[in-house]
Every structure is written in structure tokens, then in C-alpha cells.
Amino acid sequence: MHKCALAFGVELTDLLEGQSAKLSSYTVTRRGMGPVTASEDGITIQNMAAMFRQKLATPYWVTYQYSKELQSQPIHTTTHAGQEFDLVVKGTLRVRVGEHEEVLHEGDSIFYKSSTPHGMIAVDGADCTFLAMIMASTEEEQAIVVRPRAVEEVQPGQLLCSHFVQPVENEDGSLKELHFAHEDEFNFAFDIVDGIARRSPDKLAMLHVANDMTEHRFTFKDMKDGSSQAANYFTSLGIKRGDRVMLVLKRHYQFWFAILGLHKLGAIAIPAAILAGIFMTEFNASQRLLAVLRFSANVMMGLPSVLCGLFIYMAVVVPTGHFSGFAGSLALAMLMFPVILRTTEDTMVENAAQVKNIRNSLRQNAKKNG
């Protein structure tokens, strides 16, 4: 509900009480009288300053019920804007912030940037009560809390793509046609991703959710820095402009750092398994070829990983006389290629109706942009 209040530009009290907060000097909340903003899944949250208006920070009285089932499961994480301070009043709390976990006892506290994925559970067989203080971390975020209309008054600047894309509109403002300029100079990683990073470094660029539901949030600055590091690494391997690089990665967030790094070098990234899956559904290839591809992928998926490792060992490690990261990458590619191929094909087949409805002009633009 806190996020809804920010989105609609109203105080949380408007949603809970049907009236706006009126106090601006001070407010007193008696024990147990704070309005409940959430009460589900063993979590109870009370707002301790509901009637104070134009807050720069919001205190919450939070109670987590002990759950034996949650002790052996990964801690579910969430994110929100600003910074957070948690002070344990009663019980013991296990807190996860990013990839780190801490155990807090009575009197212990933790302070962190709440845009980092975080979560907590009660441990040691008892419920846990703590005071959570949510604060805006920048002037921009404070403006959202204090002056919610100020964001709407800001006029958007010139688009980053305007140097390369020139639209022609009809009298009613609808798009008539597009013209592309400076095509030889365009680099998606430098001109778009890094450009947004310079304008809005803290803007969310990617939210990645792993199989265990762990969230990773990356800003455009994170993408800019990470892709530059990847580009430097690829340069150390001798990759240069015009080289064709086969990229085989599962749905890991590192894929995007790698492909942007290759863009920066001017190399041609080839996500081989994804392209193979698209080829099997998008193009009218011979049924014999498709049957061979599917059969090969199914056989490779059934091979034990130790056999793939043994094959690369005999084919690469023994001739070169030493182990290497390149050999390990080949072994992993053999394991992941058929999985990604079949997953892509199955996804395309399941959504065949939507895929067929994509206009040819959009397909051509996608091919044009690589």
C-alpha cells in the first residue's frame, strides 16, 4: 500500500483512513494503536506516524511470527526506494541484504539501502518485533514523498535516440514513417545504455529473478560499469571489432553484461542456442534438418555431464597440456546449448499465435538492429 500511495501521489493515510494526515508539528501514537498497513503471512506492520503529513521518513512497528517451515528455505526478498533502519525490540531476526545474511538480537540494528533486495524472518523459536524506519535517500525520492506533483511538472529532455532515429508524424500525431541516420556511428551499448547511465545513473535497468526467487536489481550505471569490465576482459582475450563471438549462457544476468561488452567492442555476438531455436520455428527449413536438430538436442540433453567433460578433456586439455577457462567454457556450452535450444523452440511454439502477429516491419527493424 505504501507503493500505491506513492504511485497515486497521496498519503498512506488517505488509503487507510479515507482522510488526509493533518499534523505537522508532532504526533503521538499510543501502544498498539498504530493503524495496520499489512497483516498477512505471519507479518503485521503498523504505521507509527500515520497522522503526520509531509514525512521525510516513516516509522513502522513490525512483528514477524516464527515459522518452522521458513527456517530451511531461502529468505524471500523485496525492494523499495530509499533507505531503511531496523532495530530489534524483541526476539531474534535473520536479515538478508543482497547476498549477505546477519542475525540480529534484541538491541541490535541494521541500516541499508532498501533498493537492494532484502528480507527477514524470525528465528530461535520465537516471534520477533522490530522498529523499521523507511527514509528517502535522495532529494529526488524525498520530492516523491513530500511533493508528489513535482515529478509530473518536469518536461522530458531530448531523447537519446533522436540523433539516430527521425520520425515523421501525421497531423494527428500518429507515426507515419521512420528514417534512420548516422547508422555507421550507432552503438547500442555506448549511445543508449551508457547514455541513460549518464543521465539517470540510479534508474532501474534490469530486474533479474533467479530460480530460487532471489532478486538482483541493476541500475543503468551498474550495466555501464559491468559491460565495460566485460569489454576489457574480452579485449584481453584478443576479441576485436568485427569478430564473431558465440555466446552460450542460460538465463543468467551475466548474459546482458557480456552482450553489451561485445557491442562496445564492435564484435558480433551470436547467441547460438537462441538463434537455433528461433530458426526451427520462424523459418521454413526442411523437416529433415529440423528432425536432425531436435534429435541431436535431445541426445545431448540426455548425456551425463561427466561425458561432456571427458570429451572436452580429451579434445582440448590433453592436446594443449593444461586446463584453462576456455576448456571449461566449452564443456559448459555443450551442456547448456541443447537446453536453451529446446526451451526457445518450445516457448516459440507455445506462443505461435502471438509470434505470427508480429508485423514484418518490426521483424526487419529487429534484424537491422542485430
Would you kindly provide a written description of the structure presented here, covering whatever features stand out?
There is one protein chain. The protein is an alpha+beta fold and 370 residues long. It is built from 12 helices and 15 strands. A 6-stranded antiparallel sheet has the order 1-2-3-9-4-7, with no helix packed on it. It has a 3-stranded antiparallel sheet with strand order 6-5-8, with no helix packed on it. A two-stranded antiparallel ribbon has the order 10-11. A hairpin with a 5-residue loop joins β10 (165-169) and β11. The chain is globular and about 75 Å long.
How far apart the termini lie comes to 41 Å
- Provide the structure class: alpha+beta
Poorly predicted tracts of residues: 138-156
Gyration radius over CA: 26 Å
One letter per element, helices H and strands E, the order comes to HHEEEEEEEEEHEEHEEHEHEHHHHHH
Say how many strands there are.
15
Strand content: 15-25%
The strand order across the widest sheet is 1-2-3-9-4-7
Number of helices: 12
Shape: globular
Largest sheet: 6 strands, antiparallel
The residue-averaged pLDDT reads: 77
List the helices and strands and how they pair.
Elements: H1 2-8, H2 12-17, E1 36-40, E2 43-47, E3 57-64, E4 83-90, E5 92-97, E6 100-104, E7 109-113, E8 118-123, E9 128-135, H3 139-146, E10 165-169, E11 175-180, H4 188-199, E12 204-209, E13 215-219, H5 220-236, E14 244-246, H6 254-265, E15 268-270, H7 272-282, H8 287-302, H9 305-320, H10 325-350, H11 352-356, H12 360-368
Parallel strand pairs: 14-15
Antiparallel strand pairs: 1-2, 2-3, 3-9, 4-7, 4-9, 5-6, 5-8, 10-11, 12-13
